[in-house]
Amino acid sequence: MHLDRFDRQLLNLLQEDAGQTAERLAEQVALSPSAVQRRVRRLRESGAIMRDIAVVDPRYAGKPTFFIVSVQVERERPELLAQFRKWLATQIHIQQAFYVTGEADFVLVITAPDTETYDALMARMVGENANVKRFTTNVALGVVKRGLTIPVPGEADA
User: Fold this and answer.
1) Residue 84: helix, strand or coil by DSSP?
2) pLDDT for 101-142, tens place per residue?
3) For residues 104 and 73, is the Cβ–Cβ distance under 8 A?
4) What pTM, to 2 d.p., does this model score?
C-alpha cells in the first residue's frame, strides 16, 4: 500500500491520540472530515493501523513491576523457534518480545503484579520450552520513557 503525505500525517496523529475525531484530524491535515474517515478506514483495512488501544497508567493497575529479560535458546532450529514464539505470544504478562542479535536470542518486556507471579511465569517458560538454555532478568527501578509510537517519515524521508 502506498502512503501519501496525508496518510503519513494521519498515522502520526493517530499514534498520538487515536480518539481524535475526524473533524479534529481534518483541521490538522487540511482535508475534509469525510476524506479523513475514508483514509482512516482504508488504513485500518489494509493493516497499516493494526489496532486501537488505550495506554493505561500503571498506577491504576496496581503498580506492576517491569522485568526486562534476556533469553538464550539451546538451538536455533526453525521449528523450535516457532514453538517458542507461539508460546511467548500466548502469555499475557509478556508485553513485548524481540528476536535479537547478540548474546541473547530474545529480549522480553514483562509486567507482573509481583515477583511471585514473575517467578511462576519463568518456571513455566523453562518447563514448557525445553529449548530455553538460560535467561537473565533486569528489574526496572523506574520508567524514564514509555511509548509505542513508530515515527512515520514524510514522503521525502521515506
Assistant:
1) helix
2) 999 999 999 999 999 999 999 999 999 999 999 999 999 999
3) no
4) 0.84
